[in-house]
Design a protein that fits this description.
263 residues, mainly alpha, 10 helices, 82% helix
Length: 263
């Protein structure tokens, strides 16, 4: 299972770095599908992996000065996402504690929510050329948008990639590669706040150290590979890859939800 977790993290992070979705949207449902660990543990490990991959990609972006991250928009969203990340993580913790089933019911709720979010994201991606986008510059509204993204991404344990892409395009008219870079920037803040809350509330689940190390290694390795591919890949091909991944994730989410509620 440790090797499987590494391979999932590697390939998910390659795809995540290409599409700007952070990899968590693939890692979380696939690991749940294979039963690699409990729902709570996978949420934690997935968050750590996404944080590592996103942090690498963002750091590399700033070091190479590619100027894809829009700090005027990305930073207030990231601040809001930090607050939202804390709220989303706390809601998940309370749901697990109230249910008292080792997180199975919470995992089913996660899977259903992720299915809905993924479906809406696919619809938006297909129709986005016909959708009128906006250029929001109200700082309070930007913070609210960021907080909403943080809540969803932290609660779902996926980093928030697909939601971020849709929101960044609709509210801020960002093109595919620009929104991908800014999405990863936002993910760093939302996942970091989620991790800090987990540590401070002493709710870190039991996990294998080797699994965490290998998943992080896979996340960073995937980020390196995916970033290089992203530079050479046309935006239209990135969109097609994104849609294909989302359809696969939707099917897995339906299966995971059915399995969780039937248990």
């Amino acid at each position: 299972m440790v090797l499987a977790a590494f391979m999932i993290s590697l390939f998910a992070s390659v795809a995540g770095a290409i599409c700007g979705v952070g990899g968590g949207i693939i890692i979380k449902p696939v690991c749940d599908l294979l039963g690699i660990a409990s729902v709570v543990t996978i949420s934690f490990l997935s968050g750590c992996t996404v944080l590592s991959m996103s942090a690498y990609s963002v750091a590399k972006s700033f070091l190479t000065n590619d100027k894809l991250v829009d700090l005027k928009v990305g930073t207030p969203i990231a601040i809001g996402a930090t607050i939202g990340g804390i709220i989303g993580k706390r809601v998940f913790q309370l749901l697990v504690a109230a249910q008292g089933m080792g997180g199975k019911f919470a995992g089913g709720i996660q899977a259903l929510c992720l299915f809905v979010v993924t479906f809406l994201t696919i619809l938006y991606t297909i129709k986005k050329d016909r959708i009128h986008t906006h250029h929001i510059n109200n700082p309070v509204l930007i913070l609210i948008i960021g907080a909403t993204l943080g809540i969803l991404s932290s609660f779902l344990g996926i980093g928030g990639g697909p939601i971020n892409l849709m929101v960044l395009n609709y509210f801020f008219s960002m093109k595919t590669k620009v929104s991908a870079a800014n999405s990863l920037y936002i993910i760093v803040f939302s996942q970091l706040s989620s991790l800090v809350l987990t540590i401070f509330t002493r709710t870190v689940p039991e996990f294998e150290i080797l699994m965490l190390v290998l998943m992080i290694a896979g996340g960073i390795g995937g980020g390196i590979i995916g970033r290089r591919i992203n530079k050479e890949m046309e935006a239209s091909k990135i969109d097609r890859l994104f849609i294909g991944l989302m359809i696969l994730i939707m099917l897995i989410c339906l299966y995971n939800a059915g399995k969780a509620f039937a248990a």
